[in-house]
Amino acid sequence: MATPRKLRCQVIQLIDHGDRVYTIVLKPEQRIPRFSPGQFLHLALDEYDPSDFWPESRVFSIASSPTERECLRISYSVVGRFTTRMEQELKEGLWVWVKLPYGEFTIQGDRDVVLFAGGTGVTAFTAFIAGLGDEFSHRVYLFYGARYPELLIYKTLVDCVAQQFAQLQVTYFVERKNIDAAEVCMLSGYLSVEVAWPMICAPLDTDYYLSGPPAMLKSLAEKLCERNVAGKAIYTDAWA
Length: 240
Description:
The chain is of the alpha/beta class. It is 18% helix and 34% strand. A 6-stranded antiparallel β-sheet has the order 4-3-6-1-2-5, covered by helices on one side. The chain has a 6-stranded parallel β-sheet with strand order 10-9-8-7-11-12, with helices on both faces. The protein is globular.
């Protein structure tokens, strides 16, 4: 695993998805260290002095692929004081600091996997999904939920990969809007183990990866345990 490095980065793109959900693209002054899909970075808004302590920061999953060595992408929703600062202060051209890589929320490839992604929690999986190819021989089930269809912000990426990689099976969940009957694989309601379970070929011989708000993950994990999924087969990446 690569040794974490501290990088000064410029915000080169800021996307407002609506409903206080954003994506930012960062261009570091130096080359990005190698990282694995599912790892995260620390983002600091204040200036960093190498002779002093690291400033206040928050962790974000790295949404961009490890093969993209020039830029980093993260997505976030405004849920607290730090992300409120981000919403108020970040703009294109601003300089920030990151340190990376961190984390061990990496997907193993020795059997089928189910990915439950709530909101911007999908960023824990986007690098893995983008890198799917023939070398991954098992099924991948993605259950991806958001408040509105417009907040399925990585749907384009997911759909593109699903068209090329037949073993990726995708179901979307939208909480607060009726779904057009023409929408394929899109359901109305919250992410649900009950709904997902019949779609999984061998649910007790599968690993489960959960990323999103802590309360949602707690509920999903409990429902999986009720169906006799072993605790060692459930991996969570909760964010506040």
